[in-house]
Amino acid sequence: MPMPRLGLSREAVIEPSLSPNGTSVFYLMPGPGHKTFEVMEDFIGSGPHVAEGSPARHAEQIQAPVLVAHGDLDANVAFPQSRKIALALQGDGRQVEFLQYKGLDHHLDDLAVRTDLLTAVGALPLALTDNMNFGNPEKPEIMGEFVGVIEGMRQACLALDYPVVSGNVSLYNETSGSAILPTPVIGGVGLIADVATAIDLALKRDGDALILIGDTLGHLGASLYLREIETREDGPPPPVNLAAEKCHGDFLRGLIEQRLVAACHDVSDGGLLVAIAEMAMAGSRGVALDPAPSALPRNAWWFGEDQARYLVETDDPDRLLTLAQQAGVPARRIGTVRSDGSAAELTLSGAGAISVTELRAANEAWLPGYMAPG
């Protein structure tokens, strides 16, 4: 989808046009005193006919949604002019979004910003609903939790362009004066333009590469590894980089649309090795894993819960890694899909192998055993 572009000189803008899908597109003309302005002045002239072409004077005629994106260090097009057209459109009841990027110039040559712009005019993501579960809000500490969660969600929704369209709140969840842990629940909805491109987490083919997208620093604070293996619940959860979340997610959707991905899974609770095991069990296939990098302890590499990470199965790892490098997205090969059925194993360099069948049996037997009488 073409990205809407908007810019105004003090008195003129090149005529607006519409892209084939109905998105408003404005081709900008720089302000007086710039070389490009002089070239354009020679091309279209000057005078009342130029000023009359400004979209700011014809807001009522613009029907398609408009995205206005402008860096506040733009030395080519005056920043206030973008605000002027946005206000004109708003005043006429038109759908308009004004994005201001601090510290960027006319070109907006920043990866996260470019990704943000592409997502802002695309179909994904669409919206979310929330369910907020807390204790007694009359207690200051509980109200503090509630306010903190709302602020965190607000920041994430703004950064990810993910509007909240509905939700509900459940308060006073306490037993004998002891409150539940603060529990926000998020449900999201998105759109896959072509359902044929949808993928799942199950590994598909022997010989495919397993690629890790995102940085791994080995964050073990508040992790499942710490709780289950070390029997401790210490430290803060991993920090969240919303710009990285958006960048990596948009990059991944692009890979899926190009059909470069056979399977994909986010890395979450339990870290990298748990996500790999879940992909292996879903596809009844094994993985021969590469050694952990020497810069990190093995437990930090395999069980750290760093955010904004995905595992991707692909039959073209060279192309995928090249695209990642071009996009500035961290990516590395961590293993190869090997064997299926009863022969499937997760093989960890220097630590032996474990049967995927045995993993599945242990995973699926826990709940029935827990619920069994006696």
Tell me what you see in this structure.
This protein has 3 domains: 17-109, 3-Layer(aba) Sandwich (Rossmann fold); 127-189, PurM-like, N-terminal domain (60s Ribosomal Protein L30, Chain: A, 2-Layer Sandwich), CATH 3.30.1330; 196-371, Phosphoribosyl-aminoimidazole Synthetase, Chain A, domain 2. With 374 residues, it is of the alpha+beta class. The protein has 11 helices and 16 strands. Strand 3, helix 3 (79-91) and strand 4 form a beta-alpha-beta unit. Strands 11-13-10-14-12-15-16 form a 7-stranded mixed beta sheet. The chain has a 3-stranded mixed beta sheet with strand order 6-5-9, covered by helices on one side. Strands 1-2 form a two-stranded antiparallel ribbon. The longest helix has 21 residues, at 140-160. The model is unreliable at 1-36 and 109-123 (pLDDT under 50).
Q: Secondary structure elements and their pairing?
A:
Layout: E1 17-18, E2 24-25, H1 35-44, H2 48-51, E3 66-71, H3 79-91, E4 96-101, H4 111-120, E5 127-133, H5 140-160, E6 164-170, E7 174-175, E8 178-179, E9 183-189, E10 209-213, H6 224-228, H7 242-257, E11 263-266, H8 271-283, E12 285-289, H9 298-303, E13 310-314, H10 317-327, E14 331-340, E15 345-348, E16 352-355, H11 356-371
Parallel strand pairs: 3-4, 5-6, 12-15
Antiparallel strand pairs: 1-2, 5-9, 7-8, 10-13, 10-14, 11-13, 12-14, 15-16
Helix pairs in contact: 4-7
